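Service request form, structural biology core

Requester: graduate student, group of Dr. S.
Request type: structure prediction, single chain
Budget code: on file
Notes: please return the result as structure tokens.

Sequence provided:
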Amino acid sequence: MLMEAVVYSTFRNHLKDYMKKVNDEFEPLAVVNKNPGEDIVVVSKSEWDSIQETLRIVQNKELSDKVLRGMAQVRAGEIQEHALKE
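Core staff response, request fulfilled:
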């Protein structure tokens, strides 16, 4: 997947538009500078939260194992349907 990239000055001049685009399209945006070591990636808050939650799960062996076991149960058809209480 190629990420859209804009130069810093364009990003700065159209900040509001790029913020809306990142949020509306759920796609990250690379902001590049003359010095490649200063490039950044902009993501929506919801995407950032999702990335952080995924990292939390992956870094917690017990939680990660539970997720993997659950996925294996779904693939094996070992699922049960439950009504949600309101």
